[in-house]
Structures are given as structure tokens and as C-alpha cells.
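Dig into my protein:

:::
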Amino acid sequence: MSDSNDTFKLKNFIYLFLLLLIIWVILTNSFQLQEFGLGILISLVLSIFLSKNYTQLGLPPFSFKRLIYLIAYVFVLFIEIAKANFDVAYRVIHPKMPIQPGVVIIKTSLKQDMAKLILANSITLTPGTFTLDIKGDELLIHWINVRSEDIEESTKNIGERFEKYLKVIFA
């Protein structure tokens, strides 16, 4: 094996490890020593087995720029989830708050299936929206308060805030 191939594998191993660890922290929402240690162990074991098939997972190769954008993406995702939680809670508490549920279509310029999947899941994690289907470059979204049925306007309101980060991560 060449040195560049070994370096590529090591970078992908580290990237996959960090990605899995971030996912662990998000899911457990805990920094207690035992839980964080278990997360490190599980992420390490999974990275050892999955890094051999890293490119087949649909994940991009490691770069620090992608890592920075991934961290920023997770931060933005948390902010959007918090904002949407307050919005939905306010709609529940305040009976005169407008609610117009409906289904809209948004477009994505993401090409990779994994990037589209992450976009769809991010939209679903945000209260008030739910991804029903992905077909090509279109996502079918159930929206608690449809502000516009125009595809471009809906794309701007729902998907754009996530997609700008995913474009860099999966470029």
C-alpha cells in the first residue's frame, strides 16, 4: 500500500470516528464520563469495522473544512429544532395562532443520496415539519403552517438553512 492511501484511510477513520461520536452525543445528550466513554468505545469499534467500506457508505472524504461545516451544521440544527419547538408549543398554547397544515414540495440541489437523507431527517427532526418522501431532487414535506405553496418559497423557508451546509460537507 502507498503512503497516500494509508493517509486517506487514516483521515477517513478519524472523520468517521468523530462523526459517530457527535451522533452519539446528540442521541444521548449527556457528557457524563461513563456515557461519553461508552460513546468513544462504540464509535471506535464501529469506525474500525466501517472505515474499510467508508466510501461505500456515501460519506465524503475527510477534510478539516468539512469537519468545521459539520460542527456548524449540528449547531444550526440544534438552533432550528429549539426555535421550532417554541413555535409549535406557542401554537398549542395560543388558540388564535394560525395553523394551516398541508403538504408542500421543496427542491434540493444535493446530488448524493446520503446528503438528501440527512436533509430529510433534519427537516423531520424540526417540529412542525415532516419529510414524507424523496423523489429525485424533490422532497415532499408535511408542514404545520404552510406559508406558501410555491416550491422556491417553501424551499427557502424549510430546506435552505440546512442545505447550504450539506453542500459543503458533501461537495
Remarks:
- The mean pLDDT is 87.
- The chain is about 60% helix and 10% strand.
